[in-house]
Each structure stands twice: as C-alpha cells, then as structure tokens.
Amino acid sequence: MDFNLSEEHLMIRDAARDFAKAELLEGVIERDNEQRFPKEEVKKMGELGFLGMMASPEYGGGGMDTLSYVLAMEEISKIDASASVVMSVNNSLVCWGLDTYGTPEQKEKYLSKLTTGESIGAFCLSEPEAGSDATSQRTTAIDKGDHYVINGTKNWITNGGTSDFYLVIAQTDREKKHKGINAFIVEKGWEGFEIGPKEDKLGIRGSDTHSLIFNDVKVPKENRIGEDGFGFKFAMKTLAGGRIGIAAQALGIAAGAYELAKKYSKERKAFGTEIMNHQAIAFKLADMHTSIEAARMLVYRAARDKDNHENYDLSGAMAKLYASQVAMDVTVEAVQVHGGNGFVKEYHVERLMRDAKITQIYEGTSEIQKIVISRAILKD
Ligand code: CAA
C-alpha cells in the first residue's frame, strides 16, 4: 500500500502540528488539572476547519479525505488528547453521520453549524446497561405520529455539556430488537432534556463527559435520521469510521510520548553520559519507534480503505486495537525513560499515559474490536 503523502496532506499535517504547538500546548496542564474544556481553542479549531474536515463543502465542510483527517488527529493528539476527542467526535461521528445519512434539511439546519464550530455535537449511544452491548438500548423513542417522545438516560457522553446538537440512539419497537432502534437529532434546551453531572476522569480531563437524562422529550419526526429502524445500522456504520479517528488519536498520544522521551534521553545525563547512550534507554526507544511505525501503517491503511470506498470495519478495528495498545505501552515506557521526572506533571508524559487508557475503552473496547476482527476473519 502506497503511503506517499501528497503536498496537500503534508500541508494539513503541518498546519495541525503548528496549531497544536501554538494554541494547545500552553495551558494543557492547567486544563487537565482543572478539568477545563478547551473552549477558546476548540473555537479556533472550528475557524481553521478542523471540526468538519471530511464533510461536504456545500455545508461548510472541508471535503477532505480520511487520511487528511487522520494526519491532523495524530498531530493534535500529540499535544492535547482532550481537544482531539472533541475533534474526533464532531468530525467522524456527528458530521460524518449527518453528511452521509441526513436529509438536505437536516444538513442545512445542523451540519452547516457543526462543520464550522459554531456548534458542537455529541453522539449518544452508551447507557448505564448498554455500553458494549449496544443493541440493549433502554432509552425509548415512542412514535406519536408527527413526533417521537424520548425517555431514558445516556452515559459517558463526550461533549455532553458543551454540545448544541445530540445524535441520540433509542429503541422504538422492542420486539424488533436492533431493527426497532432509531437515531434522532436532539437540540440542547428542549423541554425534558437535562444534562447530568460531569464525570471526574482519569484521563482526557479537559474533555467534557456527562450523563444525559431524557424525560418525555418531544422530537419532531423530521429529526429522525434515515428510515424507521435504521438507528442501529446508523450507529454501527458511524462508529466504524469513528474508530479510525480514535486509532489516530492513540497513534498521536504514542508518538507525542515517544518524541518527548527521545528528546529527554538526549538531554538527561546519568553515569557520565546522556541516557540515550545506555542501551537500557536506547532499546526502549527502538521498541517504541518500531511499534509506532507499525500502528501508523494500520491507521493509514484503514483511512485509505475508507477513502477508496472499501470495507473498513476490519481495518478500522485492527487499527484501533493495535494503536491503542501501542499508546498504552509507549506512554508507560516514556514515563520510565523520564524516571522521577516522568511522574511529574510538567513533563507531560504522565498525562499522555493517563490519556492513552481511554483509547482502549471508548468507541468500542479492545474486546469489542476483537469481536469485530474475529467475526470478519472467520466468516468465510
Ligand atoms: N456496519 C453496518 N451494519 C452493521 C455493522 C457495521 N459496521 N456492524 C453491525 N451491523 C449490523 C449487522 O449487520 C446486523 O444487522 P442485520 O441483522 O440486518 O444483519 C446488526 O447490525 C446487528 O449486528 P450484530 O448481530 O453483529 O450485533 P451484536 O449485538 O452482536 O453487536 C457489536 C455487535 C460489534 C458488539 C456492537 O454492539 C458494538 O459495536 N458494540 C460497541 C458499541 C460501542 O462502540 N460503543 C461506544 C459508544 S460511542 C462512544 O464511545 C463515543 C464517544 O463519546 C467517544
């Protein structure tokens, strides 16, 4: 597979790198400490086109390919994984979902605001008792003729408090199981829609994760996405692409930690020489570099599959499974290379280590990726 990046790809990668260094680095430790959402920074990401990269230009999107998006995700995640998850959910779950399956009216009303960052979106599938087991939706959306009435609770929703528009998955007809599930666009502020408490998290602490409560929320029929019963397929299709974005996030977290460890190993001296001259450290860096390169190939390959309109369920799941493991392994080793300083916040690697863990959990745990992979490879 040819991964030669075009001039345009390189420009996008460099623009994301420059933005992350100039706008995200300063303040990233404070935002993590205080669990503060990067509001101003996300606004700038919208202005620069990072929030609707793949969406149609007629609705304000960048019309770019998935590889461009992955390159930008990687660079932004090297510095601030909290900002990159906002970017990932908005781009690959919300904008892509609406652009691909929304009506022209839905795109005009919602997508055109989401692509520019005027509004932020959230994707609401998980529930207290339906995390990995996504078909077991307890939230209901009862058909009342010209509208639906939604009741239930969603959990661990990224951008939960800061979003304006929420894509909500709910069960309309339980007898039909997953074929009775629908997806809806719900606006913040609608009667009966309550934002629950914010989660106090191990990592990606700058991102805004909430539970959401729906009490008889009236949703007009024109806000349903796709045909009646399309909601579960909508969620699965959208998540398959979302997993490529999270794989790129994991890759960026790993690469960011590796770059810091490499730099530190050239500066820090022990036993009379820079620590890079000790094989104990040099071999760690060799392992880190090798696993990051392997993860990068899987992530770019999944992006290429999506861009070439090939099935990307398998390649996306493999990319996420492997890159998230690499993110965990590399960040732990980066802390070790830093020794005592690695345990201190100002060296950044401890934050990257905490941030890495979520990439093995959200948008499908590693175990879910293995279900997707094993089903794909065993089906024939
Ligand atoms: N594309 C299209 N259709 C798909 C699909 C895909 N990738 N995957 C499944 N489907 C369809 C199947 O074809 C099937 O439809 P038919 O009956 O018409 O054939 C239907 O969906 C049900 O599929 P399964 O029988 O395979 O369903 P399952 O119950 O065995 O579950 C699963 C499959 C892969 C485990 C799925 O439940 C899953 O992905 N779970 C994890 C959910 C998840 O990722 N949650 C993350 C929450 S979102 C989040 O984290 C966002 C955030 O805030 C950061």
Automatic annotation (TrEMBL):
<feature type="domain" description="Acyl-CoA oxidase/dehydrogenase middle">
    <location>
        <begin position="122"/>
        <end position="217"/>
    </location>
</feature>
<dbReference type="Pfam" id="PF02771">
    <property type="entry name" value="Acyl-CoA_dh_N"/>
</dbReference>
<dbReference type="InterPro" id="IPR009075">
    <property type="entry name" value="AcylCo_DH/oxidase_C"/>
</dbReference>
<keyword id="KW-0285">Flavoprotein</keyword>
<dbReference type="Pfam" id="PF02770">
    <property type="entry name" value="Acyl-CoA_dh_M"/>
</dbReference>
<feature type="domain" description="Acyl-CoA dehydrogenase/oxidase C-terminal">
    <location>
        <begin position="231"/>
        <end position="378"/>
    </location>
</feature>
<dbReference type="InterPro" id="IPR046373">
    <property type="entry name" value="Acyl-CoA_Oxase/DH_mid-dom_sf"/>
</dbReference>
<dbReference type="InterPro" id="IPR036250">
    <property type="entry name" value="AcylCo_DH-like_C"/>
</dbReference>
<dbReference type="InterPro" id="IPR013786">
    <property type="entry name" value="AcylCoA_DH/ox_N"/>
</dbReference>
<dbReference type="InterPro" id="IPR037069">
    <property type="entry name" value="AcylCoA_DH/ox_N_sf"/>
</dbReference>
<dbReference type="GO" id="GO:0003995">
    <property type="term" value="F:acyl-CoA dehydrogenase activity"/>
</dbReference>
<protein>
    <recommendedName>
        <fullName>Cyclohex-1-ene-1-carbonyl-CoA dehydrogenase</fullName>
        <ecNumber>1.3.8.10</ecNumber>
    </recommendedName>
</protein>
<dbReference type="InterPro" id="IPR006091">
    <property type="entry name" value="Acyl-CoA_Oxase/DH_mid-dom"/>
</dbReference>
<feature type="domain" description="Acyl-CoA dehydrogenase/oxidase N-terminal">
    <location>
        <begin position="6"/>
        <end position="118"/>
    </location>
</feature>
<dbReference type="GO" id="GO:0050660">
    <property type="term" value="F:flavin adenine dinucleotide binding"/>
</dbReference>
<dbReference type="InterPro" id="IPR006089">
    <property type="entry name" value="Acyl-CoA_DH_CS"/>
</dbReference>
<keyword id="KW-0274">FAD</keyword>
<keyword id="KW-0560">Oxidoreductase</keyword>
<dbReference type="InterPro" id="IPR009100">
    <property type="entry name" value="AcylCoA_DH/oxidase_NM_dom_sf"/>
</dbReference>
<dbReference type="Pfam" id="PF00441">
    <property type="entry name" value="Acyl-CoA_dh_1"/>
</dbReference>
<comment type="similarity">
    <text>Belongs to the acyl-CoA dehydrogenase family.</text>
</comment>
